[in-house]
Amino acid sequence: MCASVKCNIRGPALIPRMKTKHRIYYITLFSIVLLGLIATGMFQFWPHSIESSNDWNVEKRSIRDVPVVRLPADSPIPERGDLSCRMHTCFDVYRCGFNPKNKIKVYIYALKKYVDDFGVSVSNTISREYNELLMAISDSDYYTDDINRACLFVPSIDVLNQNTLRIKETAQAMAQLSRWDRGTNHLLFNMLPGGPPDYNTALDVPRDRALLAGGGFSTWTYRQGYDVSIPVYSPLSAEVDLPEKGPGPRQYFLLSSQVGLHPEYREDLEALQVKHGESVLVLDKCTNLSEGVLSVRKRCHKHQVFDYPQVLQEATFCVVLRGARLGQAVLSDVLQAGCVPVVIADSYILPFSEVLDWKRASVVVPEEKMSDVYSILQSIPQRQIEEMQRQARWFWEAYFQSIKAIALATLQIINDRIYPYAAISYEEWNDPPAVKWGSVSNPLFLPLIPPQSQGFTAIVLTYDRVESLFRVITEVSKVPSLSKLLVVWNNQNKNPPEDSLWPKIRVPLKVVRTAENKLSNRFFPYDEIETEAVLAIDDDIIMLTSDELQFGYEVWREFPDRLVGYPGRLHLWDHEMNKWKYESEWTNEVSMVLTGAAFYHKYFNYLYTYKMPGDIKNWVDAHMNCEDIAMNFLVANVTGKAVIKVTPRKKFKCPECTAIDGLSLDQTHMVERSECINKFASVFGTMPLKVVEHRADPVLYKDDFPEKLKSFPNIGSL
Amino acid sequence: MQSWRRRKSLWLALSASWLLLVLLGGFSLLRLALPPRPRPGASQGWPRWLDAELLQSFSQPGELPEDAVSPPQAPHGGSCNWESCFDTSKCRGDGLKVFVYPAVGTISETHRRILASIEGSRFYTFSPAGACLLLLLSLDAQTGECSSMPLQWNRGRNHLVLRLHPAPCPRTFQLGQAMVAEASPTVDSFRPGFDVALPFLPEAHPLRGGAPGQLRQHSPQPGVALLALEEERGGWRTADTGSSACPWDGRCEQDPGPGQTQRQETLPNATFCLISGHRPEAASRFLQALQAGCIPVLLSPRWELPFSEVIDWTKAAIVADERLPLQVLAALQEMSPARVLALRQQTQFLWDAYFSSVEKVIHTTLEILVLWSNERPLPSRWPETAVPLTVIDGHRKVSDRFYPYSTIRTDAILSLDARSSLSTSEVDFAFLVWQSFPERMVGFLTSSHFWDEAHGGWGYTAERTNEFSMVLTTAAFYHRYYHTLFTHSLPKALRTLADEAPTCVDVLMNFIVAAVTKLPPIKVPYGKQRQEAAPLAPGGPGPRPKPPAPAPDCINQIAAAFGHMPLLSSRLRLDPVLFKDPVSVQRKKYRSLEKP
C-alpha cells in the first residue's frame, strides 16, 4: 500500500517524459514478470519431492506397518549386566556436555518389529503403557530427534513385562541398535522382572552397561546411584477415580487387600484379625462371583464382598506384602486411596527411593516382625498418621498416577545425577504443594551472631538538605560501632558539596550518586557495604542519641534476620471498609518499624532490589512513599518473623519540625499508607506482617539503679 | 489523458505483479535453500499410532494379583542390609546399648578419646551380653598392631567395626555381617543403609567442644575470592573465576592466568573450595573447607561423604562431574546470592552440629544406629503449636523436674518453684514473648557468667548488671523439647552432677539451651516490689535478692563436660510496647507490670 502511495506522488512527474520506446520496454518487462508469476505459481502447487514426505506420514501410522528386522540366531548378545556399574564408570557423561540449561537430551529409537530366523516374533511389538511412556518422553523437554546430540538413548523395545518376551532374542535386538556401544547411556524400563520359579528382582535380559529403571529391585540387584527404582504401574490408576479423602481416622485401622499371598503371611495376618477384631480386615479373592463381574475389582472377606480399590479408602494403614515379586502394583492403589502403606518386603528398594523420603509416607516393617505390626502402628501419634496420609496421596499424584509421571520422574533423577548442582531439592521432591507454598524458609537461618567488631554501615539517603545531612553525619559518627558511612546522593541536578566541606569523621565516608531520583535507591545493595548490618537513616533524623543507635545495633546482632527499628507502626483490619488500615496511634502492638532509622541485614537490600514481587518497586518509586512498608512486608514474608521495636521512641519529628498544617497532611498521608498496605497484601497474596506486643530495652532500663552504672543511660523519650 | 490513465494502470499492474513475484518466488526460494524442518509439535518425535487403541496393557488384568508365590528369600552373602544382617531383638527394652571391646596393647590418642567418649555416653554398657551393638575399634597402622578376631564375633552379627583411617590393617578376619564405620569409604565398598561413612579426622581433632565454624559473615564480600583450589602439597591458593580460563590444571587448554595468588596454609577465605583429589587428602580438605564456611565443590568424589545417610549434602556442598569442568565453573558463576547464602550457612550448621569434635562424630554415628534400630517412624522434633500450658509438679530428685512427662502435651513449659510468685500479667506477657521465640528460654531473674582471671576458671554472679547469660529455671518458659534433651541426651556424668548438686540444675539447663540455640536467653520484666520483698532464696532476706548461688565449681564442671562455653550474653530485655512510657495508663495493656 505504501508503495502505491509513493507511485501516485511520483507519477505525474514521470509519465510525461515517457516515449514509445519506453512503452515497448514496459511491455517486455510486464510479460517477463507475468511469466515469472505463472512459473512461481506452478511451482507452488506442483507436488514436488524436495519436501520430505515422511514427516507428515510419521504422524499417523499403523503399528502393523513398522519395519520388520530379522535377527540371525548367531547375532551378538550383550554381556549379562555389570553389577559394579556406577555413573562414573559405565556412563559416558561427555555426551551430555553440550546440553543447554543443565537438561539431558533423550533420543528414542524408531519402532521396529523383531523376528527370528523363522519369522517368529521376539515379543509383542509394544504395550499400551510403553507407547504412553515413549510418547511422554517425546513430548517433554528432554526429547531430541538428533541422535548425535543425545545424552541418553531409549530403545523402543518393550521390556516392561519380562513374561511377554524371549530373553535371548530381546537381548540380541538391543545389541544391534545403532548406538548400543555395550549399552552405554541406554535406559531400559521394566516393571515386572523375573519369572518362575525364582523370580529375579531385576530384568533377566542381558543388558551390559545399560541403566535399568526397574520396579521391584532388591538391595542385591539394585545398583545404587545407577539404576532407578520405579513403581509398578497400576492400570487401575487410570480406570478408577478415587476422590481425595481427607486425613483422619477411618473405619479399619489395618487392611490387607492382596490376593495370592503366601500362606504363611496370610496366617500371620489372620492371627492379627483374630487378636484385634473389627479394626483389622484381611481380604481375599472372591470365589462366588456371578458371571460378568470383574474379579480384579472385587475383594471378599468370608461372604462379604467389597469393591476394590474403593475399600482401601476405609483404612488408615494398608499392608503391602511381597508376592513372588517385591514390587507390587497394590502400592500404587494404596497410595491413591490415601491409605498409609505398611511395606513388608525385606530388602525391597521402594520406588524413587533415591529422592523420595518414604519415612514420611509409609511404615516399613521387617518380615520377621509381622506379628508386632499392630503395636508398632499404634505407637504412631495421630498427628503423624494424618501427615503420612496426606503425604501418601501426594506421592501418588506426583509420581505414581500415570505412566507419564513415572517416566518424567525417572528422567529427572538421572538428570539430577548428571548435573547435581542444578538438582531438584529434597523439599521440591517431597513437600506437598500446600506445604511448599505455605512454608517460609528463612534465608538467614543460621543463628550466627556477627562479631561486634564488624560494626555497621550507615546509609543516608539525601536530596539537597545539606545542612541537616551534615548534622546527621556528625551525630551518627559518634556511635562506637559505626564502621562506614555511605551517602546516597539522589539529586541529579546538583552536585554534592566539595570534599572539603563535609564533616570530618573517624570512619570512611563515601558518596554514591544515583542515576535517577528514586526512593528504591536507599535499598540498593551497594558494593561499598562491607558489613552485614546496615543502618538506613533519613537525612533529617537527628534526635536519636548515640546510646540509642548503639543499643539498636546490639539488638540487631541478637536478631540479625529481622528489621530492628525505633518508632513502631501497626496494620489493622478495618471491618467497616473491609480492608487493611495503617495505624500510627500509640498502641500496645507493633507489626512494622519505620525505616527512617532501622538496622537490617544487607541481604535484604539484594532481595528488595532484585526479588521484590510484582510491581511493588515501581509503585513505591511512582508514589514516592511506602518504601518502608514494602521493606517490612518483604522481610516478614521471607522470614516469617516479626520486627523488633527498640526503645520507647514513637515518632521521628522533633517538636520544632512538626509541620504547620500537620493535620490535613497527616490525613492524606494515612490514607496513602493504608492504600499501600492493601496494595502490597494483594501482591504478596497474603498478609505477612506479624503482630507482637514487646519491644527491646536495655536490661536495666528505668530500673532503680544508679544511672552512671548503666551501659545505655541516654535512651531518648517518645 | 487517456494514455496517461492507461499508463497509470500499467504501472499499477506492473508493480503489483512485481510484489507478488517477490513474495511468492522469494518464499519458495527460501524453502529451496533451507532444508525442510519438521513443524514443531505434532510432526516430530514418537508417532501417534492410528491403532493405538488396540494396544494391549503390559500386564493382563488379573496377572498382577495372580502372581505365583514363592517362599520368602533368604539373604545370601555379599551385601548386607539392616533387616537381614542385624538382630534388632536385642535392642528392645533399653534401646541401643553399646559394648566396646577393650583395647589391646598401646593405643593412640585418638582412640583413647573415642573410647572415652563412648564410655561417657548414655549408650554405654559394661556387659557384652546386654549389649545390642558390639563395637570393635580397628587399630591404626601407626601402632603397628592389628586387632584379632574377638570372642563374641558370631560372624560379625550386631558388630560395628570403627575405622577412623582408611584400611589401616590387612583384613585379618572376614567382616561378614559386621557394619563398618569408616572414614571416607570408597563408594564401591560402601553398603548404604548398613555402613556408616565417617569424616576423616585429623590426629589433633579435639575430643569435646571443638573450634566453632569460622564463617564470620553470611554474605560473600565484594573483595573476597570466589574460588579456592587445593594445592598438591597441602594448603590452598585462591583463584579468580571471573576470567573465562578454567582455573584448575590438566583438563583445560588455557593456562591459569596471572590472577592466581599465593599459597596459604590456613583456611581459605573464599566462597567456594574446589576439591578434586582423592582420599584421604580430599576428605581432610573437605572438613577444612566446611569449617571455614567455604562451600566445598567436589569433583566426582569416589568416596562416600560423611554421614551421607542422614545429611543432605546438596544443601551444603556442590558435587559435580569432573568430566564437565566448564559447566561447573559456569554454574558457580551464575549461582544466585540466595543459594550461596544458604549453602554457606549450612556448612557452619553441619560443622558445629556433627563434626567439630570427636565426641560429636561418635555420637552422630550412634544416633544413626538408633535411628535405624527404631521400629516406628520418628516424629518431627519441633512440633509447632501455640496452646495453653500444663503445669507439672515435680518432686523427688531435682532432675525429675526436667523429665519429659507424658502428660505434657503442650509445647510450652512454665517451670515454677513453689517459692516463686508471679502475677498473671507477668506470666501472660512472658508466654506471649515465648511464643515469638519458642526455641529460647524466657525468664524473669537472671545471672551472668564471667571469666575469673584470679582463679583461672569460670565464675558466676547473680548481681544485677548490664548483661546476663542465664535465666533462673525456677521461673521460666521453655520448650518441652529441652526436657527430652535433659533426660535423654545428657551424658551420665552431667545428670549425676545435677542430682548431687541441685543448684547446678539451673546452670545446666541454660547450657543445654544455649548449646542448641547458640543464642542467649530472653529476660522479661519482673515486678520490682516483690523482687525486693519476697525472698526467692532460702537464705532469707538480704539487702539485694539473690537466687541461691550454685556450687562454685558447678559451672566449671559443666563447661568441661561440654568442652566449651556455650553461654552467650545479652544486653536487652523485652518489655511491653508502652512499658513505663509517659502515656495514659488507660492505653497500657500490662499496666500492673510497672507498678512501683
Automatic annotation (TrEMBL), chain A:
Listed pathway(s): Protein modification; protein glycosylation
Cofactor needs: Mn(2+)
Its EC number(s): 2.4.1.224
Residues annotated as transmembrane: 24-46
Organism, scientific name: Homo sapiens
Family matches, as Pfam families: Exostosin_GT47 (PF03016), Glyco_transf_64 (PF09258)
Chain ranges of the Exostosin GT47 domain: 101-380
Compartments, as annotated in UniProt: Endoplasmic reticulum membrane; Golgi apparatus, cis-Golgi network membrane
One GO-annotated biological process of the protein: heparan sulfate proteoglycan biosynthetic process
Keywords: Disulfide bond, Endoplasmic reticulum, Glycoprotein, Glycosyltransferase, Golgi apparatus, Manganese, Membrane, Metal-binding, Signal-anchor, Transferase, Transmembrane, Transmembrane helix
Protein name: Exostosin-2
The protein's role, per its UniProt record: Glycosyltransferase forming with EXT1 the heterodimeric heparan sulfate polymerase which catalyzes the elongation of the heparan sulfate glycan backbone. Glycan backbone extension consists in the alternating transfer of (1->4)-beta-D-GlcA and (1->4)-alpha-D-GlcNAc residues from their respective UDP-sugar donors.
Family in the record: Belongs to the glycosyltransferase 47 family.
Quaternary structure annotation from Swiss-Prot or TrEMBL: Part of the heparan sulfate polymerase, a dimeric complex composed of EXT1 and EXT2. Could also form homooligomeric complexes. Interacts with NDST1. Interacts with GALNT5.
Known catalytic reactions: 3-O-{[(1->4)-beta-D-GlcA-(1->4)-alpha-D-GlcNAc](n)-(1->4)-beta-D-GlcA-(1->3)-beta-D-Gal-(1->3)-beta-D-Gal-(1->4)-beta-D-Xyl}-L-seryl-[protein] + UDP-N-acetyl-alpha-D-glucosamine = 3-O-{alpha-D-GlcNAc-[(1->4)-beta-D-GlcA-(1->4)-alpha-D-GlcNAc](n)-(1->4)-beta-D-GlcA-(1->3)-beta-D-Gal-(1->3)-beta-D-Gal-(1->4)-beta-D-Xyl}-L-seryl-[protein] + UDP + H(+)
